Predict the structure.
Amino acid sequence: MTNAPVQHSLRNKHILLGLTGSIAAYKGAELCRLLTGAGAEVRVVMTEGAQEFITPLTLQSLSGHRVHHDLLDAEAEAAMGHIELARWADLILVAPASANFLARLAQGEASDLLTAVCLARRCPLAVAPAMNQAMWSNAATQANLQRLLATAVRVFGPASGEQACGDLGLGRLLEPAELLALASAEFTSGALADLRVVVTAGPTREAIDPVRYLSNHSSGKMGYAIAEAASEAGAEVTLVSGPTALAPPDRCHVVPVQSAADMLQACQALQADVFIAVAAVADYRVAAPAEHKLKKTDAALTLTLERTPDILATLAASRPKPFCVGFAAETQDIETYAQQKLLAKQLDMIVANEAVTTFGQDDATVAVFWPGGGTTLPRQSKQQLARALVTLIADRLAARR
Ligand code: C5P
């Protein structure tokens, strides 16, 4: 087991850490510290049993947030209820997971906050069992385990060794560093391994004169999230970005550009296997930008605009043709326009969203279409959407091979 270089994939990830009643709860506290140290944002849910072994205050101090423990507390539910917690999480990790908790989880119970959040989840769930070796090997626990594995719950451990009760055998909670490495590996799929992915992001700026420009409100968040998700999926990623206020994602090569013409040139210079055009490229530019700052006069000013090159359509017409993904921000008839764009630009996939509610926001709902198919991804953070889109792209590529 190594906890070596995979931890960067936990940066900015939302980890919901569940603690249940076990003497190993103190290791859950250490795990919380390691997760926040790796850059994850951690929210802790403790069962009543867990609070017998370790105080919520300890976990509050380590996570930087109030610990959640009560399903029926109106105040806590109003602040961040069980459904919101479940939606917020990129990964739920229950460590330690007691025999009792596994049994309740396997039954689909929602009798306390932790089981309710697990039942309402949309993200992966991992459990790290911790119990006496006889309880672990009991047929009832093993049957519960099989049931959980059949519903794609990940099971981390347990380890074998000396137990708090003096027994020797399977049932020890894995060490916090091992759990950290396993949690981190959940965000590194390898689905795009060995592929060169080029992502365009942000707005472009089209010069009017040396100090003024035409542009738009794109924040670049979606493109940056896709670049990060593609890199976590093992791709070699180049992010061709217009001006944004965002920090470049780890491990992506960033090519900063200003205008649509610069962006096209940068993209053409790269050999992409997958080209994902997320940039909100300006549709028009000033036909003849002024060499010097324009002086204002009392007269109205008329600028003659000309079309910018369509970067995505140009790349989709290049040979060898990369797998091309476009974005369509529409304000009405989303599906019709998206399908038209898929055809007109000869794309392999198009991601359509509602322009007004998406620009600059942290989350979005999108509809995705490809020749002969499509799906809708429900409202979620742009990071969660980015990972779902990368999975869809990898699936389409696999279907094509
Ligand atoms: O035609 P429309 O601008 O709606 O198409 C949107 C898609 O095309 C986006 O993926 C965008 O990044 C890309 N695009 C481009 N170059 C342009 C205009 C749009 O790459 N000049």
Remarks:
- The radius of gyration is 25 Å.
- The CA atoms of residues 264 and 356 lie 26 Å apart.
- The pocket of cytidine-5'-monophosphate is lined by residues 200, 260, 277-279, 281, 308-312, 326-328, 341 (CB under 6 Å).
- The chain has two domains: 8-185, 196-400.
